[in-house]
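Researcher: Final request for today, and then I'll write up notes for the group meeting. The sequence and the SMILES for S-adenosylmethionine follow.
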Amino acid sequence: MDYLPIFLDVRGKKVIVDGGTTVAARRVERALSAGAVVHCFDPDPGEEVQTFLGHENLVHHARVPVEEDFEGCLVAWGASEEHDRDTLLFAAAKKHGALANVADEKDYCDFITPSVVERDPLTIAITTGGAAPVVARILRARVEAMLPASYGRLADFLSSYRERIADRIKGGTARRRFWENMIEGPVGDAFLAGDEALADELIRTDLSGDGAEKLHRGEVWLVGAGPGDPDLLTFKALRMMQHADVVLYDRLIGDGILDLVRRDAERINVGKQAGNHVLTQEETTALIVKLAKEGKRVLRLKGGDPFIFGRGGEELEDVAAHGIPVIVVPGITAAAGCGASAGIPLTHRAHAQAVAFVTAHGKDGLLPHDWTRLARHDQTVVVYMGLRFVADIAAAAMGQGVDASMPIAVIDNGTRTTQKVVVGTLADIGKRVAEAHLKGPALIVIGSVVTMRDELGIDVAARDDSHRMELTARSGL
Ligand SMILES: C[S@@+](CC[C@H](N)C(=O)[O-])C[C@H]1O[C@@H](n2cnc3c(N)ncnc32)[C@H](O)[C@@H]1O
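Model: Predicted protein-S-adenosylmethionine complex:
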């Protein structure tokens, strides 16, 4: 981070805006709305600046500023687009201890003027540190679209309960939970739906009886994180990731997803590398129970969907046996994610009317599946955890009489920027996969839907598109 993000109190303080341009008008507007006394300098201000003339906190000087004007000034903005004026403004501001910012002149800036979303009293400021202001502006537009105007009023409404909440709920964690439950739960819903009376009643109920005690109780949240691309997280998963006290994750959690967890949440890697168990399943479950009993909100982040080959059921059995409350949040399972990003629809009226999810191996190794029943002409088979056994699976299927020309695809690191797809037939897939040096995790899709991949041509285009915003931001374009 190259800049310190702070919000300045400028109420009643002197702020200078030099210029009569559109940029100057935006600066005047922002400083006035923050309560500053704005001195605007320009002999001939444009129409937009003129709309502010007459404002009680605006002093217009129909000339360019001189050094003495900067005495007692807190912030000075240059927006004249004239080099001599910018130079004078920066030097004079420095001399009088004011913070200076000249539009588009990095060397004349003590601070950045961020893109701002205002839902008074809520203010969101966005910056790319000057690297790519367009990215900040695009993000601002997105945030604008996401935030209902009433969010600001919600902040105002809730602030009137501050003292009562502080009196009633002791302890930082419990208080934070209370606020989160209010904002993201029924209270916030009622208020944003326009029912202030109901919101008020709900807060009072929550503050009475055992409502407050419940806040000290631990919980377990079993959350699906999808197959790897952070954009495939659900809103609910993201919300819970930002509220958890501790997060347990393993190697199926794709890059970029953990970055979205609340900054001060504890993170524990229970790192299940194949054949290199950092924690056994039993140890993981015991740890979840222990943390929840300490009163923590424990989020177990699972790749894909927790209830599809995720051992979610097993983990919950033990947690439930200890009487700990549990919430399960589904995720996009690898089959759905990989199908989409590899351009293979799992069902298609001309190819498959059913789809079967199977795991290649169980506790005791490769499972003896009935491949003639599974790999039928009208059904797609998706095999999880089968990368190491692709050749064995193909051989077993052909040995049971499945046609050797049956199409098959192996999707490695599906939905991630490192995705690879190997396509072949039962007869040659073992050799092709060996040549491709796939790293896993990988998913096997068997059935004639695999031929749709060439017809749709989705693969690269779709992934490029979903990563475009992220790459643009990273490369600073
Ligand atoms: C223990 S299972 C977990 C499945 C997960 N619960 C789900 O719903 O996707 C792990 C297997 O899921 C598949 N898998 C998970 N993420 C994947 C990805 N990004 N690309 C390909 N396969 C993936 C692989 O077959 C991997 O061996």
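Model: Residues 14-113 form a domain with the Rossmann fold fold (CATH 3.40.50.720). The first strand starts at residue 14 and ends at 18.
Researcher: Thanks, that's everything.
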